[in-house]
Automatic annotation (TrEMBL):
Pfam families xrefs: Ribosomal_S21
Family membership: Belongs to the bacterial ribosomal protein bS21 family.
Entry superkingdom: Bacteria
Encoding gene (name): rpsU
Protein name: Small ribosomal subunit protein bS21
Alphabetized UniProt keyword annotations: Coiled coil, Ribonucleoprotein, Ribosomal protein
Cellular compartments per GO CC: ribonucleoprotein complex; ribosome
GO biological process, one term: translation
GO molecular function, one term: structural constituent of ribosome
HAMAP family for this protein: Ribosomal_bS21
Record InterPro entries: Ribosomal_bS21, Ribosomal_bS21_sf
Residue stretches in coiled coil: 9-36
Family annotation (Gene3D superfamilies): Ribosomal protein S8
Length: 65
């Protein structure tokens, strides 16, 4: 739960802006998207390996990015 400390004289727009920044820094939306569906650890690992292979191929010049 995000808590925003706002002063009485503070504008509602400033408080909303603070909330949005705190929301992005906490990465709540990413966590919600990850929890929508379960991916097996082996599938995650395979994706990471494929991504690493792809990055290596781009770095070596085999694939044009």
């Amino acid at each position: 739960m995000l808590i925003i400390d706002s002063k009485d004289c503070e504008n509602i727009d400033k408080a909303l802006k603070k909330y949005k920044k705190k929301f992005e820094k906490a990465k709540i939306l990413l966590q919600l998207r990850e929890r929508q569906s379960f991916t097996k650890p082996s599938v995650k690992r395979r994706g990471e390996v494929l991504k690493a292979i792809y990055k290596q191929q781009i770095a070596s010049g085999k694939i044009e990015g």
